[in-house]
Design a protein that fits this description.
Layout: H1 6-11, H2 13-46, H3 49-70, H4 73-84, H5 89-125, H6 132-157, H7 161-217, H8 226-259, H9 264-274, H10 276-297, H11 305-328, H12 331-337, H13 343-362, H14 364-372, H15 376-397, H16 401-426, H17 438-455, H18 466-484
Length: 488
């Protein structure tokens, strides 16, 4: 593999943008998501396992309803502002204003719906009357999360990475304080209230940064010709959000099925606590993806082989590297979470969650291809298969509680990856080498071998066999890079 020199980085606008943007977003994201993950860990230790399961179902409910409250408009804002900020500032201004207006109306409708139906949902579906008031608070949180998604999407489209980094850091501090202080004094209700207060403050802070940035770009919040831009927004937003429309409700339904099992809230609490660690990895990968998307949306960014390597394999490699310590030392997770989470269950759930996360990371480049080429309807079919297969698997495995959930989730992603990656290649949306490549296959075999060694035994001396296996990874990536970039 060629070594990328400092001089070469300085001479390449693309590399400078990737490194600068990734550094800023990653720095902010690491601090923010680190604080959030730490807050979840502290909350998992403060609350009982069942109470943490209650918080988990509230978080899942918010993720589910957020789809209806935001409708994928944040991503749409990023796309159009990226494309129009230099060529049509008036259109960019109208898209920003129309997006904020649409999301406020949608999120307020969701809040009113929760306000009216919180009692039937908590007592009839979730079988937990104590969640009635927290569900109403969750509805308020959704309003500010939705509005913030538009503001952050606009800042991302403007490539204002420094502002986004600051927003991430402030968000981490606010949510850490709100969740920990609220959870310590008032349990689940206190944690969700602290979440609300944090998001309210964050909204006004982000709004200030957005207005300041827009002034420098000659863009403002405008509702001019909003009917026209509403149609334009939803032409992209509906297919962009439909895949999320499938994923979030599916996860919520699965969570609901789990909590309705014997000892269900305990099982959901166990699962939710373990996946804190892989969620942190996914959040970090999201920061890298947020840097790459607006850059590849720009016409000037032609996808050379080296840029393609970053696009299709960058987050995958980072995910694998971050997962290695968790695979080799799963006891770290048990130690951090505390004795109330059984080690044997943690190991299985953790390994399955890691494997799912690695698959998701490998698909990020395809996801960007679908956005750039306006093929979001195909993403809907892809995630529809994931939803159906995961649901059917969990109906068979729900008796195994948290481990059944983890197996269903992972197997659903394996099925989706094996079926739809070749399909997207066949449709010429993504290049064949992301799947039909001996070095890609070699990395997957390497992952399975490393996992098998550490899953099969708890004896530390036997895990020494992991060391030579780990040493193969840089060589595999070196060969993959060489094959992809050999023509440049």
């Amino acid at each position: 593999m060629q070594v990328v020199s400092f001089q070469r980085v300085r001479s390449s606008p693309f590399l400078r943008q990737v490194l600068k943007g990734t550094f800023l977003l990653t720095a902010g994201s690491v601090i923010s998501k680190g604080l959030l993950a730490l807050a979840y860990i502290i909350l998992a230790r403060i609350l009982t396992t069942s109470e943490y399961g209650e918080y988990g179902i509230l978080r899942s409910t918010m993720d589910n309803l957020l789809v209806f409250a935001s409708m994928g408009i944040g991503l749409t804002t990023t796309k159009y502002i990226s494309e129009l900020k230099h060529t049509d500032k008036s259109a960019a201004s109208s898209i920003l204003g129309t997006s904020l207006g649409l999301v406020f109306v949608l999120s307020f409708i969701v809040f009113l719906t929760l306000l009216i139906f919180s009692t039937p949902v908590s007592t009839g579906i979730l079988k937990n009357e104590s969640l009635t008031y927290p569900l109403i608070i969750a509805g308020g949180i959704l309003i500010f999360i939705s509005l913030n998604s538009i503001q952050s999407g606009a800042l991302l489209g403007l490539q204002s990475y420094r502002d986004i980094s600051v927003v991430h850091i402030v968000q981490g501090i606010l949510l850490f304080a709100g969740l920990c202080i609220g959870g310590y004094y008032h349990g689940v209700t206190g944690a969700i209230t602290g979440n609300l207060l944090g998001m309210v403050v964050l909204y006004f802070f982000t709004h200030h940064l957005l207005i300041r940035r827009c002034k420098t770009e000659g863009i403002h919040i405008s509702f001019h010709d909003w009917r026209k831009y509403t149609k334009l927004i939803y032409k992209f937003a509906i297919p962009a959000s439909l895949s999320t429309f499938i994923v979030a409700p599916t996860i919520w339904i699965l969570n609901t099925m789990l909590v309705n099992q014997p000892n269900g809230y305990y099982q959901l609490g166990l699962y939710s606590a373990v996946i804190i660690f892989t969620m942190a990895i996914q959040m970090l990968n999201g920061s890298i993806g947020n840097v790459l998307l607006p850059m590849f949306l720009a016409d000037k960014t032609a996808l050379s082989h080296k840029k393609a390597f970053v696009n299709y394999f960058g987050t995958w490699i980072i995910t694998i590297l971050l997962s290695i310590p968790l695979i080799v030392f799963p006891e770290l997770v048990s130690f951090i979470l505390g004795n109330k989470y059984p080690v044997d269950s943690i190991r299985t759930i953790l390994f399955l969650s890691i494997f799912s996360t690695i698959i998701i990371a490998h698909k990020q480049g395809i996801a960007r291809d679908l956005i750039i080429k306006n093929k979001m309807w195909l993403s809907v079919f892809s995630m529809g298969l994931w939803a159906v297969s995961t649901f059917l698997l969990f109906t068979l495995l729900k008796g195994y509680g948290a481990m059944g959930f983890a197996w269903s989730y992972c197997l659903g992603y394996i099925i989706n990856y094996l079926l739809f990656t070749p399909f997207f290649i066949y449709k010429k949306i993504s290049p064949a080498y992301i799947f039909y490549n001996k070095w890609v296959v070699g990395v997957w075999i390497w992952i399975l071998l490393l996992t098998a060694i550490n899953f099969s035994t708890s004896a530390y001396f036997l895990r020494l066999f992991s060391l030579p296996v780990i040493g193969l990874f840089p060589w595999l990536i070196h060969r993959l890079y060489g094959e992809i970039c050999k023509n440049e």
